[in-house]
Each structure stands twice: as C-alpha cells, then as structure tokens.
Amino acid sequence: MALLQLDRLTLRFGGLTAVNDVSISVERGQIFAVIGPNGAGKTSVFNAITGLYQPSSGCVRIDGRTVRALPEPADVVRWGLVGLATGLGAAVAINANTLWDAAINQSAHLQPFPWSTSWNALVASALQGPWTTVPLAIGAAIGVGAAWNAWRMGRCTPDAVARAGVARTFQNIRLFRDLSALDNVLVGMDRHLHARGWDAALRLPRHRREERDARETALRELEFVSLGTSAHLPAGSLPYGHQRRLEIARALATRPSLLLLDEPAAGMNPAEATKLMELIKRIRDRGITVVLIEHHMKVVMGISDRIAVLHYGNKIAEGTPAEVRANPQVIEAYLGKEELG
User: Per the domain annotation, does 225 fall within a domain?
Assistant: First the structure.
C-alpha cells in the first residue's frame, strides 16, 4: 500500500483552478520529487496534503487513511441510523410492557392480525412521555457524537496530519529567529511530550525526565544535520544554508514517516546542494519517505526515485528521472533541451 496517495486532487480558489485532477502515489522508502515552473501548483499540493488547504474535490490518503475536512454524507447517514437504532432499542427495553400491551394484548383477538393497527399503537406509545422521548434523544445524541468523532479522527487539519506522521518545511524559511537552534528543534518535539502543566510547575520527575530526553533527542537531530556546534546560537544568526538544515532538523524531531521538503536547495551554492543531497539520502535511509519540491535539477535528478511534473495545475508526466528527462512534454513545458542535456 502506498504511504501517500492523491486521488484526483483538485483545488479551486474562486475562478482559478490551482491544481486540476492530480493523482500521485508515493511508495514507502521513496524519494519522490514534484517539479514544474513557478505557478504550477506544487506548493498548493503540499498545502492540501498538510491540511492548510481543503480540497475542492478528490482526496488525500496517508497510509490508506483518507483525511478530510468534512464528514462524508454516508458517514452521517450511517451513524444517524446507529443512533436511531440505539434510541429505539432503549425505548423498547424501557417500555416493553406498555408496547406489548399496545401491540399484542389489545389487538390479538382480532382476525386477521391487524398489523397497521399494531404499528400505529407502537408509534403512539413510543411518542408518549419522557420514558420514550429521552431514550430516543440519547440515541440521537449517540449518533451525532459518533459522526462528529468520525469526522474528528479523519479531518484534514495540520495538527491531525502531523499526528498521522507528516512533517514539512516551507519555501520561505519559518524559524523562531530569536530562539536558539536547540529550542527550535524542541518546538518540533512538542506533540511527543506528555507531561502536564502541573508537572512543569512543580518540576515533578516526569517533567524533568521528559525535558532531559527531549534535549538529548534534539541535540542528536542537530548532529544529524551537521549543526551540533550551533545548538545554542540564535536561529536568525545562522547562515542561510544552515537555517535550511535547521528547518529539516525541526521537522525530523516530529518523528515523521513522511517528510515534505519545499525547495530545500533554494539559495544554496553547489557545495551546499551536494551536501543536501547526501542529507536527504540519509533521511531516506532512516526509513522516512521524502517528497520534495525543487527547481534545482541536479538535486532532483541525482536523488529522486520518481518524479511528477506539474504544469498550470495539471500533471503532464510522471516516471523515473530518465523517463522524465526524455519526455517531450516536459522539455517543452519546463526544463528546456539545454538544461536537460
């Protein structure tokens, strides 16, 4: 089963269609690149995956689970019927004697058996008094609550997507510039910390233990991206390339199974881009699937297992680097014959 699936994903903003009927499947352990000219809809795809944008149509599946903003109509009907059945069952159980008398004792002497009269008697009895209306209301509440819980567990919002194991970086660096590099990484670990407010206020052992473990993990992530010596420096004072690496370290601190990198090589010189390629390969070797948006073709062609090409919101090609390199539509729409060589 694919880790990430986009099934006919469409994003519309007023009269503008930013992404049109795009389907992509990313297998576990892949490095998958999404390329295309500016305005092709690449970042919009990332925003849909992470819940910043809600799909106009189509869906996003993470590890086989559909994430969405609203419950499907079938879910509402299904859980509504569960609530109705629960309410009727409770009403019958509480009023069994009354219903038996209305349906059987008062009608059994008539031949043939008066089904319509019995059903009318059942309904009339069920609508009388709090001992029937209360169970029905409770059943309805159960149905509504179950539908709401089904939506809550499947909604496509950034926090829910993060809990599903997805982390990302951004095209424009978004660090807490006045915090240290270490503190920036610790922010990424927040969802894995379980100590309560009173644990922190009272400095209880649970809080101290989690704080110690979190710092050790954050330092390991900084070492992993070659920023161990910069742990206590303000993030805003780091060179541009190091800030890119710090964003990746913060994303890795969330312990993702899927990492989305939005133009990680932007602004890097050739030496930094080469080191970035090595880093992304090491991330993949940790068992993390990587999807990246990138304009740096040497990076894309050098590390990607598969590539999807977007143009004006449409997917015009998908395949291995060699297949994409040779695709006439891609050459004409984006890469250019000279750049591909």
Answer: yes
